[in-house]
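Why does this matter for the project? Reviewers at the last site visit asked to see concrete outputs rather than summary tables. In response, this paragraph embeds two records directly. Each consists of the residue sequence and, immediately after it, the corresponding structure tokens. Nothing has been edited or filtered.
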Amino acid sequence: MSEVNRPGAAPVAHTTDPAKPGRSRAPWEFKVLLSFVAVLGIGIILAWTLVGSRSPERLEPAAASELSAACNDAQTQLASLPNPFPRTGADRVARIRAENDVLRTMIRHFSEVRPSAATPAVAVRGWSDDWSKAIDARERYANDLETKKTAQFVLPATQGLKPITKNMDDFVRENHPNLNACFVDALALETVEGQRDYKAVTG
């Protein structure tokens, strides 16, 4: 009879094979890890929101306030224009041209803003130029709608891929929340057909 099976023999201790995988993590360890990641993510979001972007294109508060005031004023004027849902071609042309007049006045106010630092000043000029290009595209659409059987609204794009309106909104985000009134959607810049909707945009 073997030693293991002999009655009265002491039980044989079994050791863990070191080649086998170690223990799995306990559920509480995963919870601690997930909690840490969540706290870290919330901290990053709050830091960005409260402190703001540190981009070299970020404007000083006074310059951002002037630009924001121009956008707010433009939004108010746009919302007061007649026929906010033009249906016929002639009404759409008239509405677009009236909107373009308001937007061009807004851009003239942009040109009066003088950021103190060189990089933000260059950024404002480039941003204003993009606004002008987008308005010119709206004007071309209105002209085509008036004189041709078909018309297509085509926004200029950077490198042929990214519409300039995306770059324009990127600059606004660099200055969040001081420039939120100037988001493209807040001024319905890309709307040339259908109902106009002027609303606050936060990001």
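We now turn to the second protein, recorded in exactly the same manner.
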Amino acid sequence: METSKNIKKKIETTFDVLDTINDVNVSPFFKDKTLQRLYAEKEEVTTAGFGWFTPKLQLATLICILIINVFGIYQMTKTEYDSNITEFAKLYELSGNQQPSLFN
């Protein structure tokens, strides 16, 4: 029985504390200042997405891609490429002189 009295007493003291709570006076511009700071931080975070990809890096990337493409085209136009392909086709009997198939 004493434990139920102790619990009731604790509950009553808890509710008594709620009566002592008062309104807090805040500056009328506090909300505006806080919202401005929040929005300013959000804008800074979103703009930092591709900050490392500067125009100098873009130009270097473009030059590298162009060099790789020119080198690839040069290698494709060599006559050795055609001779290697024909040699490969003869080795594995993939030449066009085969007998026609039913599926062709």
